[in-house]
Write a structure and sequence with these properties.
The protein is an alpha+beta fold. Helices cover about 40% and strands about 25% of the residues. It has 15 helices and 27 strands. The structure holds adenosine monophosphate.
Length: about 600
């Protein structure tokens, strides 16, 4: 059974496999390797299509096309609020830290959207390989934190894809370039600028082994930013200020086309129908470069940080490798050449390198690969991992840039006499105070025997596995009481939630809607019934002979209907009650008006109104 490599990209995703010793990207029926990372949901929140058709429908009303969801993976609503606004996605407001989009009556997580993409790629592989692939290596940006990695795994689980391991994208690219066969001791910078994320990794080659010396990046930097800058410029110039979702998407699509055209020529035309207006703008390469320069400069900061972390200067870098669609831009190439003082290496298709490298790693993991012997990939922990201590300070257990897999333990004690439980708060980040770091999870070691403060010895162990996923355990040395909890990142989904999602994947749409309508009908009927009951009680003397009985009969019929699940019966009952009470209600209104007109005291009017 062949293993596959998947590049789950912000803009595009690909699947590749090694055939006859060569990594190849698998194509769709139209011979395309790239699958736009776009998923279309209808107005009710049901997924309709993935990829090109989803992208094509993006500007259509009656649904939502999600693109760039990788930006939302493993993030909280607060962290991605700006992005959500820019993409016109509605988010669920709440204290739940895993972000959810709202489409119709449904709530959809970025994990589910990613799962749709993974499912399609997996199906493509199954079709091309005439059988189910064994497992998959899925690539993630080197800068992805624990929650983002966990979310990627969750998406694969929902899609039914068996994850062999997660691999940092630059490391995959280095593999694809066969850099392991380069000169020993050679240092390589992998500059990866895609649609939504930027990664810079400094790798060192030693006997065919990649060691990642450092990684840095920005999860909010890429081609999308260039598109947005250009779209906003043109919208401004055209004087369109009231920008709705479809208009914005149309502007982004046209901006992206213009940007691509500018990679091959000195001038290009932006053309789109925006808010009913035919907009055409001539863009030249110079003004486009001036527009995006501040965005590209941000990549420079991350490069300098990565070099600093590896204690290297640009002159120490022997080779620079370009990855990601945005590195096709001449300005990006010039920028990289200037930054590192050498021309970047770009022999492979920058869109495909990561998937090809992932396929090679997947092949190596079959254990029967002819590709590489003794090849080992060393990745590093992108951000330091630690525990909250008294006073809200952070004790770092695994420092950033430690090679993974990594394990580290430390012994702690209690601060209060007779403490029987210890709260453990796992955080990620470089700052000294917990408030400035990112909370990954909390758990409790309880059942400790009461002892004076400072006596218990609690050993806490941090383990980061080969995928960069963190597990934390705590053990009381005296009693052996332990918690062996896998730290679920606060932004990820629990196993239960994933299971619930799997179940919900079975098409529930119709029953969901029916249930919702029944609830609405009941609420409305309840309101009518209680208003009528109150009115009879308040104004019994305003009822005509026989009217009271008719209303009471209607009321009890409605209550009977409400006890059942027949929505039509409830609606009919409410309607009937409304009808039989109409003359009585009319008389009350007239009386109230009279009272108001004749200048009765407000309190009397209120009393008469029964409020
Ligand atoms: P990736 O995330 O690696 O798939 O990169 C996708 C990004 O590359 C998108 O923002 C594309 O607009 C951009 N891109 C692809 N081809 C070109 C090109 N020829 N010129 C400029 N940008 C491109």
């Amino acid at each position: 059974m062949a293993n596959i490599g998947i590049d789950l990209g912000t803009t595009h995703s690909l699947v590749a496999v090694v055939i006859d010793g060569q990594p190849r990207c698998l194509l769709d029926d139209d011979e395309r390797a790239l699958l736009p990372s776009a998923v279309r949901y209808d107005a009710k929140g049901q997924p309709i299509c993935v990829g090109y058709p989803a992208l094509a429908a993006a500007t259509q009303p009656g649904g939502t096309t999600f693109t760039s969801v990788k930006r939302f993976m493993g993030r909280s609503g607060a962290e991605v609020a700006d992005d959500a606004q820019r993409f016109h996605y509605d988010l669920v407001q709440g204290d739940d830290r895993a972000v959810r989009f709202v489409v119709g009556e449904k709530e959809i997580t970025p994990i589910e959207v990613s799962a749709m993409i993974l499912r399609l790629l997996h199906a493509r592989a199954e079709e091309c390989l005439f059988g189910r692939p064994g497992g998959a290596v899925i690539t993630v940006p080197a800068y992805f934190d624990d929650a983002q990695r966990q979310s990627t795994r969750d998406a694969a689980m929902i899609a039914g894809v068996k994850v062999l391991r997660l691999l940092n994208e630059p490391t995959a690219a280095a593999l694809a370039y066969g850099l392991n066969q380069g000169t020993n001791g050679q240092t390589v910078a992998v500059f990866d600028l895609g649609g939504g994320t930027f990664d810079i990794s400094i790798l060192k080659l030693d006997d065919g082994i990649f060691q990642v010396l450092s990684t840095a990046g920005d999860t909010h930097l890429g081609g999308d930013d260039f598109d947005q800058a250009l779209a906003e410029l043109v919208l401004n110039q055209a004087g369109i200020s009231d920008v709705d979702g479809p208009t914005y998407r149309a502007a982004i699509t046209a901006a992206e086309l213009t940007k691509r055209a500018l990679s091959d020529s000195d001038t290009a035309t932006f053309k789109a129908t925006l808010a009913g207006q035919e907009v055409e703008a001539q863009i030249d390469a110079d003004s486009f470069e001036n527009l995006i320069r501040p965005i590209i400069e941000r990549a420079g900061e991350a490069c300098r940080q990565a070099l600093g972390d590896a204690a290297l200067s640009p002159a120490d870098i022997d080779q620079v490798v370009l990855v990601g669609g945005s590195t096709r831009m001449p300005m990006v190439r010039k920028f990289v050449a200037k930054l590192f003082g050498k021309s970047p290496h770009s022999g492979l298709d920058p869109d495909r390198v990561v998937a090809l490298g992932a396929a090679m790693q997947a092949d190596i993991l079959t254990g029967e690969s002819a590709l590489a012997e003794d090849m080992l990939l060393l990745d590093v922990v992108p951000l330091s991992l630690g525990l909250e201590m008294m006073g809200g300070v952070v004790e770092r257990l695994i420092p950033r840039c430690s090679a993974i897999p990594a394990a580290q333990s430390q012994t702690f004690t209690t601060h209060v006499d007779n403490q029987t439980a210890v709260d453990l708060h796992v955080v990620q980040g470089e700052r000294e105070l917990v408030g400035d770091c990112r909370s990954l999870g909390r758990f409790k070691l309880s059942g400790l025997p009461p002892q004076p403060a400072g006596v218990p010895r609690i050993k806490v162990e941090f383990m980061v596995d080969a995928d960069g996923i963190l597990r934390v355990s705590a053990i009381d040395a005296a009693t052996g009481i332990s918690t062996d909890i896998e730290v679920q990142p606060s932004y990820g989904l629990s196993e239960d939630q994933i299971e619930a999602m799997l179940e919900a994947a079975i098409d529930n749409a119709e029953t969901d809607v029916d249930e919702r309508l029944l609830i609405d009908a009941r609420i409305e009927a309840e309101q009518i019934a209680s208003q009528v009951a109150k009115a009879i009680k308040c104004d019994p003397d305003m009822l005509e002979p026989g009217e009271k009985e008719a209303i009471e009969t209607g009321l009890s019929a409605l209550k009977d209907a409400m006890a059942g699940n027949d929505r039509q019966r409830i609606t009919a009952g409410a309607h009937h009650l409304d009808e039989v009470t109409a003359p009585f209600a009319q008389r009350r209104i007239e009386r109230d008006l009279q009272l108001a007109i004749s200048g009765k005291a407000a309190a009397d009017v209120a009393k008469a109104l029964g409020i």
